């Protein structure tokens, strides 16, 4: 691509929409490790990253797959409860490593209040990590524990059993009762706390 007095080619990652360099520069100027939160439809991951001259260095990481492997969580790894639990797990790992503060990095995602990204943030905060934030962006307790899923499942089961079977078919095939999500959430949370306390 050509460069000229009035036109400069942007960095490749900027052209691909993967990196906002202006936002990244402001994060790096804080000179403290970044808590990087990334999501997909099925999973959520958190990494504590320290910027170095030779490139970013991952200090600690946590992934929603760990909830299934180590703590008995069998529901979706991409839900708000799973995001909170993964954030809690990451927070405890970071605190245990001797770091107690960080700054949130959500990358190119739009900062929409009360979403999975901020559920993961709340989990890290509840573990004791200090991260600058505004309280109104955090999801409420009902969404974090999965109570909204429980209420929806009960409503569907009583009024539209066919839709209930279709909506929760993946869980039902695995022998999971969606009405027990709050109970399993609390059990998983206790296991994480017990491991790191």
Explain the overall architecture:
This protein is of the alpha+beta class and 197 residues long. It has a single domain, classed as Nucleotidyltransferase, domain 5 (2-Layer Sandwich), CATH 3.30.420. 47% of the residues lie in helices and 14% in strands. The protein contains ten helices and four strands. It has helices spanning 12-15, 21-28, 65-71, 80-96, 116-126, 141-145, 147-159, 161-167, 169-173, 181-196, and strands spanning 34-39, 44-52, 55-63, 103-105. Strands 3-2-1-4 form a four-stranded mixed β-sheet. A hairpin with a 4-residue loop joins strand 1 (34-39) and strand 2 (44-52). Helix 4 (80-96) packs parallel to helix 5. The radius of gyration is 19 Å and the shape is globular. It starts with 11 loop residues before the first helix and ends with a helix. The model has no long low-confidence stretch (mean pLDDT 91).
């Amino acid at each position: 691509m050509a460069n000229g007095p009035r036109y400069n080619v942007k960095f490749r990652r900027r052209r691909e929409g993967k990196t906002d360099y202006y936002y990244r520069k402001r994060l790096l100027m804080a000179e403290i490790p970044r808590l990087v939160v990334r999501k997909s439809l099925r999973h959520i991951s958190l990494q504590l990253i320290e910027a170095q001259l030779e490139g970013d260095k991952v200090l600690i990481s946590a992934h929603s797959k760990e909830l299934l492997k180590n703590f008995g969580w069998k529901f979706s790894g991409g839900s708000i409860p799973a995001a909170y639990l993964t954030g809690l797990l990451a927070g405890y790992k970071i605190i245990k490593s001797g770091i107690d503060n960080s700054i949130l990095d959500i990358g190119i995602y739009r900062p929409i209040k009360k979403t999975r990204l901020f559920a993961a943030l709340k989990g890290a905060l509840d573990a004791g990590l200090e991260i600058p934030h505004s309280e109104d962006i955090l999801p409420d307790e009902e969404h974090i524990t999965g109570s909204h899923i429980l209420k929806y499942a009960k409503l569907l089961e009583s009024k539209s059993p066919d839709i209930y079977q279709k909506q929760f078919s993946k869980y039902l095939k695995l022998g999971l009762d969606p009405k027990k999500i709050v109970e399993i959430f609390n059990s998983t949370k206790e296991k994480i706390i017990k491991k790191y306390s």
